[in-house]
Amino acid sequence: MTFDSLILAAVADELNRKLVNGRVDKIQQPSLLDIVLTIRNSGENYRLLVSADAQFPRIHLTSAKRPNPKTPPNFCMLLRKFLERGRLTNIEQVDFDRILRLKFAAFDGERTTLVVEIMGKHSNVILTSDSGRILGAVKLIGPKKSRYRQILPGRQYVSPPAHDKINPLDIAREEFNEMLADTFPESKDTADAELTSWLTKTFTGISPFAAKEVVARSKDNASGIVGAFVDFLEAVRTREFDPVLITDDRGQTVGFYPFPSSQHPPANQHGRSSTNLVADIYYTSTVPREEFEHSKAMLVSRLRHELKARERTISSIEAGIADTADAERYKQLGELILAQPHAVQEGASEAALIDYYDPAEPTISVELDPRLNAAENADAYFRKYQKAVSGASALQDRFAEAGTEVKLLEKLLKGAQQVASDEQIRGLIEMAESRGIRVQPSRRPASGKQKRPFDGHRIRSIQSSGWEILVGQNSEANDYLLTRVANPTDLWVHVKAVPSAHVIIRTNGKPDAVPKSVLYAAAELAALHSDARHSSLVPVDYTLRKYVRKPRGAPAGKVLYQNEKTIFVTPT
Question: For residue 444, is pLDDT > 60?
Fold first, then answer.
């Protein structure tokens, strides 16, 4: 249900009658986009909710009480400074648009205006001085977001673009009839969809729902669309509102309106005494329900994403295991070189050797490093053998682990599709993360200017399941992160044998307590910030910071490390 101009007109009419000349006793901001003003007037306390939420922007009286943060947001503190103990002197709707101005007079006589713009994702709540200078806003908008209209302290307030629409309250019957005839010369053949579209594009404040309502009423109006339009708006002019709560056939609240609607069966519309009341009932039931459905959809989507990632990981591991099948051959080649050192010429890039492991004992060509002698070339093949064997073992372990994770994710996904409460969603998330599976994206820093706590070095801080992960974003940042920031018992994470970001997990002296989900999150960050970011399976080493050292004179970011363990991740 869109909070359109007709609803706003009805709400404003009631607010003017109930709140004007009332004193602002309390101001709270339960969320970043919601403001609650407690106003006392005529011996009663009223709670006025103002929300700039993109999905549910609105303003109405409410009986619902919500918990508030321990530390009030900056905008809440600003409102308390200018509005608390002041009086609400006037409420006006601007040109029948979805803009409401609440004018206040402080106890010392200073006048301010709270501008409420109910415009979907562009909704905002803005405090201005008597001269129109912006003092603050729920959403600050800089020149990068809008060249036409910046919402920043100190700037002059500018109204949203008008889009050259006509205020329907200023149109007489004859003028509307002429406009209709000019637009639709053959009005009898005009489709309902065309009329609806024309009404919304031509007149300020006529939402799609209101336009459909006018068209629906025109079927029972002797004067057709003209009479329906005029009669519909006459009720707004005279403030003859008759609010209803709209339910579906199951009795679930699906909407409300300041008038009974021709678009819904009369049996599904329930009259109430106040538009503010029906708005409060609707949003009190709908917002939690919609938030739950959104959380459920996000969880299902994330689980599917993680399941597909594990399936891709298993495919990559299978390919990696197949590649390690040559491990035994590396060992054989090393032994053949040692058995026939006379066949290895100094500076040669290959050698012709008899393959004693083949019953036919053929002569084969074996690749050599021309910089090494026979013993050193044999040792190089033995190292390849050890690396392949070690990699195969790690891959087998990861293969089994990924298979277990796939089964768990399939179980979690089935459960997520059947959840019926927020508690069940939280339970599934906790179950997943306790098994080392991240089903919530890492929280990114808030947008806008960020403080640089690392002396200006490009180090990104990310939260994962309550643990802090630090990512160096260039070689200088990597050096600073390693030498000046990380503690000896923090975990250091780096892609194996490939240039990558240095990643630090802050362990607070308890490295063994770091969950697998956090370790894999850090490993994925290292892989994403590496030359192997496009690989399907990336080996990532991790060890304690105290086992990492920077050689004297080494370039920035160059380190040596030991006691490492290796995990495999797929960058996502």
Answer: no
Phi, psi of 244 (to 5 degrees): -135, 150
CB 279 within 8 A of CB 260: no
d(CA 176, CA 225): 10
What class, spelled out in words, does domain 5-137 have in CATH? Answer: mainly beta
Rg over CA atoms, the chain? 34
Closest alpha carbon to 273 in 249, 242, 314: 242
Lowest mean pLDDT among 50-59, 388-397, 495-504: 388-397
The structure tokens listed for 125 are 């709540």
User: In the prediction, which pLDDT does 446 show?
Assistant: 44
Q: Which pLDDT score, from 0 to 100, does residue 452 have?
A: 53
Q: Which amino acid type is present at position 163?
A: H
SS3 assignment, position 274: coil
Asked if 228 and 276 count as a contact pair (C-beta separation under 8 A), the reply is: no
What is d(CA 151, CA 194) in angstroms, rounded to the nearest whole number? 36
Distance between CA atoms of 85 and 69, rounded to whole angstroms?
A: 22
- Domain-by-domain residue ranges, the chain? 5-137, 317-434, 459-569
Yes or no: say if 142 and 150 are a contact pair by the CB < 8 Å rule: yes
Is the backbone of residue 38 left (phi > 0), alpha (psi -120 to 50) or beta? beta
Contact 11/60 with Cβ under 8 angstroms? Answer: yes
Query: Using CA atoms, how far apart are residues 41 and 46, in angstroms rounded to an integer?
Result: 8
CA–CA separation, 84 vs 118, rounded Å?
23
| CB 457 within 8 Å of CB 483 | no
pLDDT tens profile 274-287: 999 999 999 999 99
Mean pLDDT of the chain: 90
What number of H helices and E strands is found in the chain? 12, 22
pTM reported for the whole predicted model: 0.66
Give the model confidence (pLDDT) of 547-571 as tens digits: 999 988 888 888 999 999 988 888 8
Beta strands in 337-458 (DSSP E): 350-354, 363-367
Enter the tokens of residue 411: 């179980």
Our CA angle for 342, 343, 344, nearest 5°, is 90
Tell me what the mean pLDDT of segment 173-195 comes to: 85
Give tens-digit pLDDT for 300-343: 999 999 899 888 888 888 877 776 667 788 899 999 999 999 99
- For residues 344 and 187, which has the higher predicted lDDT (pLDDT)? 344
Task: Count Cβ neighbours within 10 Å for each residue of 79-97 and write b for 16 or more, e otherwise.
Answer: bbebbbebbbeebebbbbb
* DSSP code for 141: B
Please answer whether residues 61 and 81 qualify as being in contact, where contact means their C-beta atoms are separated by less than 8 angstroms: no
- How open is the CA angle 21-31-294, to the nearest 5 degrees? 125
CB atoms within 10 A of CB 336: 20
E-state strands within 159-252: 244-247
- Residue 13 and residue 1 in contact, taking contact as beta carbons nearer than 8 Å: no
Q: Which residues contact 81 (CB under 8 A, 6 or more apart)?
A: none
